């Protein structure tokens, strides 16, 4: 039976304007500011990691701060282009084929993490080859800072009242303006906590406590695996995209689960590979 706000004392949605502020006719959205905040904080953290020689193999940083400054442009393009293209191909292709201009309407659906990850990976490979940087170490430094972007991105999703969760009667349920008069899981906040805060702290503990960056590829594997497990878990509380619904006639399987499942195997492979390479060098 649907749970409505009239039946339970549910937390009201904090009515925050998606537009943070305006400069004349230019409207600055929280969603855009979230991307800027994630990229800038990630960049600042990456510069600290690059400057700490003791964290890296043979106590030599594989990348300079100047190279990181150059890479931020590549990363931003990879995230935005890959994220938008990923959403189109994975979630919204029929609608875009009917109306190609929809591809430019970033407010219709937004971005896909899996697409952004693919775009950033391509950017990293090209940048590493061009600048003679060890590819796995570049993967690691980017993986360490990505949770900043994930955290702010999910908070922006919550502010926009999008990507909300399934119906529920938990005390912290929220009635979203765009989700009908129903109490729903604030699944955006679950993702912000798991993919952002928890994953950031786990990776930081491995970097500083276990010197995991000395085994190139290990941090990348932990991030990929950790993100996939977090995303699959939260998908059980998140409403699937309306245009796709549940897959294969089930009432639980979603596109997010399908795209994340291979990442677990990929992450485990990266961790095992890193450990084998480290053992060979002993």
From TrEMBL:
Official protein name in the record: Phosphatidylglycerol--prolipoprotein diacylglyceryl transferase
Membrane topology: Multi-pass membrane protein
Organism listed in the record: Rhizobium leguminosarum
Signal peptide coordinates: none
Pathway as given in its UniProt record: Protein modification; lipoprotein biosynthesis (diacylglyceryl transfer)
Gene Ontology terms, MF aspect: phosphatidylglycerol-prolipoprotein diacylglyceryl transferase activity
BP terms from Gene Ontology: lipoprotein biosynthetic process
PROSITE patterns: LGT
Record-listed E.C. numbers: 2.5.1.145
InterPro entries noted in UniProt: Lgt
Taxonomy, superkingdom: Bacteria
Entry keyword set: Cell membrane, Lipoprotein, Membrane, Transferase, Transmembrane, Transmembrane helix
Subcellular localization(s) per the UniProt record: Cell membrane
Family: Belongs to the Lgt family.
Chain's role: Catalyzes the transfer of the diacylglyceryl group from phosphatidylglycerol to the sulfhydryl group of the N-terminal cysteine of a prolipoprotein, the first step in the formation of mature lipoproteins.
Sites where the protein binds a 1,2-diacyl-sn-glycero-3-phospho-(1'-sn-glycerol): 154
Transmembrane segments: 28-46, 71-91, 111-128, 135-156, 192-210, 217-234, 246-272
HAMAP family in alphabetical order: Lgt
Group of enzyme by EC: transferase
GO cellular component: plasma membrane
């Amino acid at each position: 039976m649907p749970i409505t706000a009239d039946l339970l004392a549910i937390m009201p949605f904090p009515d925050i304007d998606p537009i943070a502020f305006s400069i004349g006719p230019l409207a600055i959205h929280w969603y855009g500011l979230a991307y800027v905040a994630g990229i800038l904080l990630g960049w600042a953290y990456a510069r600290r990691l690059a400057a700490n020689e003791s964290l890296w193999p043979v106590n030599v940083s594989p990348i300079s701060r100047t190279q990181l400054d150059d890479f931020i442009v590549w990363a931003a393009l990879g995230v935005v282009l890959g994220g938008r293209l990923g959403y189109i191909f994975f979630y919204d292709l029929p609608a875009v084929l009917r109306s190609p201009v929809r591809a430019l309407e970033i407010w219709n659906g937004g971005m896909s993490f899996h697409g952004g990850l693919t775009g950033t990976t391509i950017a990293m490979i090209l940048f590493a080859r061009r600048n003679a940087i060890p590819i796995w170490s570049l993967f690691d430094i980017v993986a360490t800072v990505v949770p900043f972007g994930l955290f702010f991105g999910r908070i922006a999703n919550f502010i926009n009242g999008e990507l909300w969760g399934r119906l529920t009667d938990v005390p912290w349920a929220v009635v979203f303006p765009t989700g009908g008069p129903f109490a729903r899981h604030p699944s955006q906040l679950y993702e912000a906590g798991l993919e952002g805060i928890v994953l950031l702290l786990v990776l930081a503990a491995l970097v500083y406590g276990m010197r995991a960056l000395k085994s190139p590829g290990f941090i990348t594997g932990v991030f990929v695996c950790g993100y996939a497990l977090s995303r699959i878990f939260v998908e059980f509380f998140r409403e699937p995209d309306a245009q796709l619904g549940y897959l294969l006639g089930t009432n639980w399987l979603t596109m997010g689960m399908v795209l994340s499942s291979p990442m677990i195997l990929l992450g485990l492979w990266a961790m095992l590979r890193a450990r084998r390479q480290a053992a060979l060098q002993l």
